């Protein structure tokens, strides 16, 4: 199995590409500002939407499990994916910028 770098949310570089692999209802409630939404179940068919292989990017979910699975798969296929440890729960707890798609204050939905 490919080792995936685990990155604290506070260490994600400003302006970095973040791929959120959560389900639609989770995304709509709140997500990292600027993140791109590609659910775990559709990632294999949406590879063309990812940064080029070798280009660093970060994968996030609710708690880090789904994003780690996605990042492992992507690394095995030549992508420089990093897992955001603790997911959106840790992102929110760190006070990092979040946005919602439902017009309400951003929240971590699971």
TrEMBL record:
GO MF annotation: an example: transferase activity
Keyword Transferase: yes
Transit peptide as UniProt keyword: no
Classification via SMART domains: RHOD
Domain of life: Bacteria
Entry keywords, A to Z: Transferase
InterPro entries reported for this sequence: GlpE_sulfurtransferase, Rhodanese-like_dom, Rhodanese-like_dom_sf
Every Rhodanese domain range: 12-100
Protein name: Rhodanese-related sulfurtransferase
């Amino acid at each position: 199995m490919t080792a995936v770098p685990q990155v604290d949310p506070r260490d994600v570089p400003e302006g970095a590409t973040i791929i959120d692999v959560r389900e639609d209802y989770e995304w709509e409630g709140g997500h990292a500002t600027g993140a791109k939404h590609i659910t775990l179940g559709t990632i294999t068919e949406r590879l063309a939407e990812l940064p080029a292989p070798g280009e660093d990017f970060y994968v996030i979910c609710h708690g880090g499990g789904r994003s780690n699975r996605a990042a492992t798969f992507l690394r095995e296929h030549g992508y420089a994916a990093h897992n955001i440890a603790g997911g959106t729960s840790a992102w929110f707890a760190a006070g990092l910028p979040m946005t919602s798609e439902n017009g309400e204050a951003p929240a971590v939905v699971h």
